Amino acid sequence: MTTTRPWDEFADFVRLLRDELGLEMSEQQAAADFDALPTWDSVHLLRLVTLIERETGRRVPVARVLQARSLREIHALTRPDRKDLP
Q1: Could you tell me the residue ranges of all domains in the chain?
Q2: Whole-structure pTM value
Q3: What was the pLDDT predicted at 5?
């Protein structure tokens, strides 16, 4: 039996964004480049980093997150099942 953690899957990550950060967006919108998200700003990024750290109990690789071009990339960098994170 396989158990999933809070947001191993991208759909769960998007649901977390909606529930915890109040960001109403579809998976397709969340996969788009940040330039295509008119409501996205640096405050959302700070809130997201805090949320990810709270949910995973691990530090977020902020330098790598800042290089990400989409929420899908951030999800890939910070998934709870990643073994290379502190």
Answers
A1: 10-78
A2: 0.83
A3: 58
pLDDT tens digit sequence for 14-26: 999 999 999 888 9
CB 16 within 8 A of CB 6: yes
Extract the tokens encoding 1: 């039996």
The tokens 């800042």 sit on which residue?
66
DSSP H stretches of helix in 1-82: 10-21, 27-31, 42-56, 62-67, 71-78
- Give Cβ neighbours of residue 67 (< 8 Å, ≥ 6 apart): none
Class of domain 10-78 (CATH, top level): mainly alpha
**Cβ contact 31:71 at 8 Å:** yes
